[in-house]
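[INFO] parsing input record for Putative sulfate transport protein CysZ
[DEBUG] input buffer:
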Amino acid sequence: MSVTGISCFFLGLKALNQQGLRRFVVLPLLFNFLLYGGIAYLSYHYLFAFTDYYIKQLPHWLSFLSSVFTLLFFLLFVLVFLSTFSVVANVFAAPFNGLLSEKAQQLLYGIAVPERPLGTMVVQSIKRQGQFIFYYFPRFIGLCLLFLIPPLHPFLPFLWFIFNAWMLSMQYQDFAMDNNLVDFNTMRKQIKSSKRFSMGFGFIISLLSFIPFLNILIMPAAVIGGTLMWYKRQQNKATELL
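[DEBUG] output buffer:
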């Protein structure tokens, strides 16, 4: 694909100020503010105490690595809670994110979504997030079980980063697909068929999550970026048929 997943996110970020979309951005912004506010609160109250306790358990001969382990634990803590909180936040924000995706599709690309009553759309959005949770949760638990293997601890931040990138990419791309009546299993297959495209999108979302203030804009920007990714897939399909 000529457009990368990373560029799709930044195009979504640029579109936040687009006339006609601004009022649909407010609620996703509020949900994202609460998300990162919760992470900051938990970090302040629990992260430093937990890190200090864990560092004290290190053998004396590894004490010179305490700064490295402190950084790794900080990254791991943020990634684990970012993963959990993002899924929960997107479940509650799903109807609003779905509406933002619909308006972005209409305004930016001139394509109307299939008509559905508002109540039906809200119920379907929540149902779709439930399907995502059932997909996400067993994998989340499997990754958490790796905490029981101490030699793997230094590698866990990297594994969680990859996990977050993939899950966030899938979740944000799904709003447009759900609006256009693409079922959950088909959505998964389409995203897997363009792994580099999807992983680049999730990578930039996860990376920018660590930048204060900018991370507040991630949710609405990613929803619009995910809508652009759906549109590009439709263009590619049309080109292949010619």
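[INFO] The two ends are 17 Å apart (CA to CA).
[INFO] shutting down worker
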